[in-house]
């Protein structure tokens, strides 16, 4: 029996456990379903509460706005407004009842298991119906509500949306509320029409409201009150305007710029932009901090009505540029047949500027007496008249550029200085450009032209003056006796004259002195003849012919400063490393005998030959050009060698920065590196130049760079785009007329002081001037057909 009982109990155990699990599962499902229903009801209750609050707020805003229009022109308010006013207390009571925090809690308690939903809204319904019935015209249609004595839940609340939308808390408005909103929208449309507001549109009340709104919403540009300059702006302006003085005493320009930027950056987005119009503010986005400060000061001065009519140094006699073609005058310190950079490069610049035919061009070169010509010009070549020399120059140029350049060549008196190995202008060079053509001046070597310049200030006579720095004079002077002391004085004199006589200065490379108003850009190209030679050699190599049959060579004026000292030192130090290396040297000069004797004493394998043109046929077959010079600013011979497709071995120096992008340019930093680069060049073949590389070496590209960096393109630009830009920048362009510029005042003072000092013959001689160069001598008057000197000659015109 025991066994049977145990068996029966064991058999009934699975059935009871399965029944228990079934009940548990069913109870859980019911619980989850009830919880979901409760959550849905809670969401609906909260949504209804939010709807009531939102409706009450909208209604209150509408009533307040409607009650604000207490205008005499409206004698009988519309029925809709009376209805809303009567309905407001009932709706407020409704809102307080159903928007309280306990509303949701009570609803959830009511919605427990077994409870029934009862919401008594009869009071609200009766209130709305009574108000509607009281309206004679029947503003709202509630027939369906009045006909129904008893409404069920669905009929009263309207149809709910689907279950998916209900879960998101979205449902339709209650039917009476929806109808009320519809009528309110219709009333709002009619309120904005002429029917209601036409009676008081032109009333005094509306005019006062308009004037009040205008005074409140006034735009910033309409305000005549411009905030005054604060202390940081005043200090920034003082530091920037004191730049010339700080530069002369040794304070770096970049330090002054950084101080100004730090002082102005804090105010850029606050006071500065707040006092400017949106048009001016958009201009500032493309301008630097100096223009922002200028415009800020100009706006303050404009608000005060102040106008600056010019100072003591202002030259009011300077003519405005004519409406016809502009005129460019290029003034240089040397002339052909002297094959120097300041003679050749300005000549090409004049030719390519004149080729565009957008402006008239005059090239002003020095005229030397026959005694000086014999010292300067090669092969004892002399000229008896300026016309004869002009013919020589034009023929030489036309052979190389391939076209006849239409520009004028004029001459000014000059004298050759044996000590300085350069030509010094005599008298006032600016007088050889007529006043009617005094528009734009390009001063090739501005420091050299103005060391002893005693005449009219260039920036007073010309509208735009650009200086192009060719020579690193400090490097040459340091090699002389007491060179450090001389270089100190020359450095400050160069700063002095370039600041006083130029608007813009272009430096060919960073090897030059850092001058005021200067930027670095290579604005020189190569003779087109060298590019043609390079193309010819490249075509021969494509045909499989041997283009280079010779090794290495060096070409340059035979003076120690032109790289001969560095060349001999390198070859002497590594004579054993370069065993069997032979170098051909081409050049003439004052130090030729000393250079050759030094090389012979050191037993260097150098083959000296007479100087010749770099384009000479005898030089085409050399593969490697060696240039160890570190005194050059931008070696023309290096550019010519690259244009002919040769290897160039040169020092890693700022003067060679432009050439580093060419694959055939091999730069070295140490003497051991020099040996490695020479061997690399002799053992390999140079790469042909790409079209882009050839263009970068051309004078077309150099002229375009010059136009951009000298700002000459802006000066010469007469297109519609330029006119529009000048319109938007008009306030920036006229700031100098509204504001005394301390920099211009200092520059004018420097120019006046320089004029006084150079007028003293004793001081001129003490600083190394050639005697008699303050004025022209008799031979110059005769050769250049000048008028005899006047007893009274007010040159400067102050």
Automatic annotation (TrEMBL):
Residues 553-687 form the Glycosyl transferase family domain. It is an enzyme of class 2 (transferase). Belongs to the glycosyltransferase group 1 family. Glycosyltransferase 4 subfamily. It is found in: Plastid, Chloroplast outer membrane. Its EC number is 2.4.1.241. Keywords: Chloroplast, Glycosyltransferase, Membrane, Plastid, Plastid outer membrane, Transferase, Transit peptide. It catalyses: a 1,2-diacyl-3-O-(beta-D-galactosyl)-sn-glycerol + UDP-alpha-D-galactose = a 1,2-diacyl-3-O-[alpha-D-galactosyl-(1->6)-beta-D-galactosyl]-sn-glycerol + UDP + H(+). This is Digalactosyldiacylglycerol synthase 1, chloroplastic. It comes from Parasponia andersonii (Sponia andersonii).
């Amino acid at each position: 029996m025991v066994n049977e009982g145990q068996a029966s109990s064991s058999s009934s155990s699975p059935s009871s456990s399965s029944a228990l699990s079934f009940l548990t599962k069913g109870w859980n499902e019911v619980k989850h379903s009830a919880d979901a229903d409760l959550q849905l009801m809670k969401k609906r209750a909260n949504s209804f509460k939010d709807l009531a609050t939102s409706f009450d707020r909208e209604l209150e805003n509408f009533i307040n706005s409607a009650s604000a229009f207490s205008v005499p022109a409206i004698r009988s308010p519309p029925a809709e407004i009376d209805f809303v006013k009567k309905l407001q207390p009932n709706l407020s009571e409704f809102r307080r009842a159903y928007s309280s925090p306990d509303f949701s809690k009570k609803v959830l308690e009511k919605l427990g298991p077994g409870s029934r939903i009862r919401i008594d809204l009869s009071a609200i319904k009766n209130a709305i119906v009574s108000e509607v019935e009281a309206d004679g015209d029947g503003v709202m249609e509630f027939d369906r509500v009045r006909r129904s004595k008893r409404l069920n839940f669905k009929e009263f609340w309207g149809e709910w949306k689907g279950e998916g939308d209900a879960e998101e808390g979205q449902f339709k408005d209650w039917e009476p509320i929806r109808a009320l909103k519809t009528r309110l929208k219709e009333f709002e449309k009619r309120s904005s029409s002429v029917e209601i507001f036409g009676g008081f549109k032109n009333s005094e009340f509306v005019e006062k409201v308009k004037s009040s709104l205008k005074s409140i919403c006034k735009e910033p540009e309409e305000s005549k009150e411009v905030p005054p300059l604060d202390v940081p702006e005043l200090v920034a302006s003082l530091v920037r305007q004191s730049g010339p003085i700080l530069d002369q005493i040794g304070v770096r320009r970049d330090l002054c710029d950084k101080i100004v930027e730090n002082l102005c950056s804090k105010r850029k987005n606050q006071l500065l932009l707040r006092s400017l119009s949106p048009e001016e503010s958009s201009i500032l986005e493309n301008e630097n901090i100096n223009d922002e400060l200028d415009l800020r000061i100009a706006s303050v001065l404009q608000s005060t009505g102040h106008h600056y009519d010019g100072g003591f140094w202002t030259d009011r006699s300077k003519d405005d540029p004519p409406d016809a073609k502009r005129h460019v005058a290029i003034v240089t310190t040397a002339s052909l047949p002297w094959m120097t950079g300041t003679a050749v490069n300005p000549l090409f610049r004049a030719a390519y500027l004149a080729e565009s035919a957008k402006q008239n061009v005059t090239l002003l070169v020095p005229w030397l007496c026959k005694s000086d010509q014999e010292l300067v010009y090669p092969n004892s070549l002399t000229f008896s008249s300026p016309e004869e020399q002009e013919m020589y120059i034009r023929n030489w140029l036309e052979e190389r550029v391939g076209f006849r350049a239409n520009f004028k060549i004029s001459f000014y008196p000059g004298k050759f200085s044996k000590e300085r190995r350069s030509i010094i202008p005599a008298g006032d060079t600016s007088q050889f450009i007529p006043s009617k053509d005094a528009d734009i001046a390009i001063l090739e070597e501005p420091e050299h032209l103005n060391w002893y310049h005693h005449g009219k200030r260039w920036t007073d006579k010309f509208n735009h003056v650009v200086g192009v720095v060719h020579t690193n004079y400090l490097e040459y002077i340091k090699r002389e006796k007491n060179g450090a002391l001389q270089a100190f004085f020359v450095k400050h004199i160069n700063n002095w004259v370039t600041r006083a006589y130029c608007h813009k200065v272009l430096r060919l490379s960073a090897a030059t002195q850092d001058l005021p108003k200067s930027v670095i850009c290579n604005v020189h190209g190569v003779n087109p003849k060298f590019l043609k030679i390079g193309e010819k050699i490249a075509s021969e190599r494509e045909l499989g012919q041997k283009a280079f049959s010779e090794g290495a060579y060096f070409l340059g004026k035979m003076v120690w400063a032109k790289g001969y000292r560095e060349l001999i030192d390198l070859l002497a130090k590594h004579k054993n490393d370069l065993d069997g290396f032979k170098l051909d040297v081409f050049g003439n000069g004052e130090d030729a005998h000393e250079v050759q004797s030094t090389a012979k004493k050191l037993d260097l394998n150098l083959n000296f030959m007479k100087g010749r043109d770099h384009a000479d046929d005898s030089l085409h077959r050399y593969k490697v050009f060696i240039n160890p010079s570190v005194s050059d600013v931008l070696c023309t011979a290096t550019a010519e060698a690259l244009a002919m497709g040769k290897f160039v071995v040169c020092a890693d120096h700022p003067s060679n920065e432009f050439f580093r992008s060419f694959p055939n340019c091999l730069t070295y930093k140490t003497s051991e590196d020099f040996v490695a680069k020479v061997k690399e060049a002799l053992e390999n073949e140079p790469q042909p130049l790409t079209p882009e590389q050839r263009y970068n070496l051309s004078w077309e590209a150099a002229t375009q760079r010059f136009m951009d960096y000298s700002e000459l393109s802006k000066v010469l630009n007469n297109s519609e785009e330029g006119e529009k830009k000048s319109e938007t920048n008009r306030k920036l362009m006229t700031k100098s007329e509204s504001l005394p510029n301390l920099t211009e005042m200092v520059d004018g003072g420097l120019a006046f002081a320089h004029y006084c000092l150079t007028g003293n013959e004793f001081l001129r001689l003490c600083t190394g001037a050639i005697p008699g160069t303050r004025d022209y001598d008799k031979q110059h008057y005769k050769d250049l057909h000048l008028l005899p000197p006047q007893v009274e000659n007010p040159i400067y015109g102050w």
